[in-house]
Design goal:
heterodimer; A: 254 residues; alpha/beta; eight-stranded mixed sheet; B: 88 residues; alpha+beta; four-stranded antiparallel sheet; 4 strands
Chain lengths: 254, 88
């Protein structure tokens, strides 16, 4: 069913207690629900990622997307803020984890929360979702084509990004990975390295690789969009969330 | 992919922003997902003045051929300009 929802911009405590902007979408007809921390991609806190937050609420989950660039460009448009963040060298892994932790705590404090929280991210946010899952007690982690999870960035990348294989031991939640077979960042070989490492560490996970899809196949307003893969991917995501953080079948009386 | 690949340089320039002409102090050049240009990846250039806020920005996104021809044309124009007319 499609849930009624409320979506709004809020302020909440992120890394080191800083008040940052976030986009919150909550189902208004559920007495109890799981929650999702939505991590935006490198191009920023944009409309397409806000739409993803609303999709979770429509499916019965609260969702909160921290504006990772709020400190650098408060009140700026998403593209201007992303440009400033890139010029400044991006944001640190520590800030990402702190902001995700703040979002997790905010969601758990909602009166209708069942206490369970997942993270999801796309592209650069896919790696950051995995990182959050390694360092925070999340119940589920979704990585949509995040590069540099199983490898470090190469030397020609001025913004150094470290792989996360050394942090897998910290995972507390199940992992869902969704990838395009034609993507090279991450490549199918790199995703295979990751699944081997997760299996060796006895971390529950499921990976799906879509033929005919490359990077960013979920992104509906870009040429990379692959409708068949995206539709199937969303079904897999919702099934995974129902299994890991689900409790959204309890509805409020009309 | 989000490439993270970014060239950052200091510049002495002016650019027309949404609020008018401003001094631009920084430029970033990178290949990544464009905001508007209809392709998966593009060459992007941002001219910025971070001290004036995030909206003090002039951004362009283009395909590889356009970027290479632009770079070539910039160098050609500079090379063919009369000696001494440009301040360095």
């Amino acid at each position: 069913m499609t849930h009624n929802l409320k979506a709004e911009t809020i302020s909440f405590a992120g890394h080191e207690g800083d008040e940052i902007e976030g986009y919150l979408a909550v189902p208004t007809d559920s007495a109890s629900h799981g929650s999702v921390v939505v991590i935006h991609h490198l191009p920023g806190y944009d409309e397409s990622t806000k739409e993803i937050a609303r999709r979770f609420a429509a499916n019965g989950y609260a969702a909160l997307m921290p504006n990772l660039y709020h400190r650098l460009a408060p009140g700026a448009s998403a593209d201007d803020a992303a440009a400033i963040a890139r010029n400044a060298g991006g944001i640190s892994d520590e800030q990402l984890v702190g902001d995700a932790q703040g979002a997790m705590h905010y969601l758990q404090a909602l009166a209708t929360s069942n206490g369970k929280v997942a993270s999801i991210g796309f592209c650069s946010g896919g790696r950051q979702s995995f990182l959050a899952g390694c360092r925070l007690p999340l119940d589920a982690v979704i990585d949509c084509y995040g590069a540099f999870v199983s490898t470090d960035s190469t030397p020609e990348f001025p913004l150094a990004v470290k792989g996360l294989l050394g942090e897998i031991h910290g995972l507390t939640g199940q992992v869902l990975g969704l990838f395009g077979a034609e993507d090279q960042y991450p490549s199918p070989e790199q995703n295979n390295d990751l699944t081997v490492a997760l299996s060796a560490a006895h971390k529950p996970h499921e990976f799906h690789t879509f033929e005919g899809a490359g990077h960013a196949f979920f992104n509906v307003d870009r040429p990379s969009y692959r409708p068949e893969s995206a539709v199937e991917g969303w079904k897999i995501i919702m099934k995974f969330l129902s299994k890991t953080i689900g409790d959204h079948h309890v509805h409020l009386p009309n | 992919m989000c490439t993270y690949q970014t060239e950052v340089l200091k510049v002495r320039a002016s650019g027309k922003t949404p609020t008018g002409w401003e001094s631009m102090t920084d430029a970033t050049v990178y290949v990544d997902h464009p905001i508007h240009f209809p392709a998966g990846h593009a060459l992007m250039i941002d001219f910025l003045n971070p001290s004036l806020g995030a909206s003090a920005r002039v951004g362009v996104e283009m395909d590889e051929r356009s970027a290479r021809e632009l770079a070539h044309s910039i160098l050609k124009a500079l090379d063919e300009a009369p000696a001494g007319v440009l301040e360095s």
